Amino acid sequence: MVTTSPNEGEEREGPVIRDKRRIDPETGKVRESGGTGEQPAAPAAPVAGAEGDADSSLKTQLAERLADLQRLKAEYDNYRKRVERDRVAVREQALGQVLQELLPVLDDIGRARDHDELTGGFKSVGDRLEAVTGKLGLERYGAKGEPFDPTVHEALMHAYSAEVTETSVADVLQPGYRIGERILRPARVAVAEPDPNAEPDAASDATPNGDEKTDDDE
Q1: pLDDT in tens, 169-179
Q2: 3-state secondary structure of 75
Q3: 140, 175 in Cβ contact below 8 A?
Q4: Is 131 helix (H, G, I), strand (E, B) or coil?
Q5: What pTM was computed for the model?
Q6: What is the pLDDT of residues 71-88, one digit of tens each?
Q7: Can you list the domains of the chain with their CATH numbers?
Q8: CA distance 50 to 54
Q9: What confidence tier does 19 reach under pLDDT thresholds 50, 70, 90?
Q10: 70's torsion region: left (phi>0), alpha (psi -120 to 50) or beta?
Q11: Nearest-10 crossing angle of helices 48-114, 120-135
């Protein structure tokens, strides 16, 4: 009868040997694991959704910055236009005040010309003054026979006339002056309106050749 010990047939645990040599004796290469013989851990795989969220956030920020730049540019353009418009308005106002003081002098020159008194040195001075004010944008207006416009004309006299078909300027008592669209002084005029009591034109009773109809023609 063969007996065995209680521990017979069981595998005994032997000693664990760890090779901590930095140089691998088989390949002769330096071990990256610090000589433990263990393989380095593989890097963690990137999360699939993290990269997409980062791109979406970056695009949102870029869109916001672009909108801010566009808004700033629009505000600057509006500011520049407003400054330029104000500058032109201030210039026209200052120029208008200076030229308005010269209107009485221009009136005297005009009256002297109408009475053939603008001669000699006075004529030269008058012509030069009118040329200079014209270069500065001063425009004289108002003429006999033109349609009456209450926005640029000031009616001082009123009459009816059978010679006009619409309200017109019958005479210019004092010329008007303007700079561009700005009226420095309206033209003071006499106004003529069509006469409501005027008789119809007798031309309707005339024959095609201009002769009046007679009883013998019938």
Answers
A1: 999 999 999 99
A2: helix
A3: yes
A4: helix
A5: 0.55
A6: 999 999 999 999 998 988
A7: 59-136 (no CATH), 140-200 (2.30.22.10)
A8: 6
A9: low
A10: alpha
A11: 160
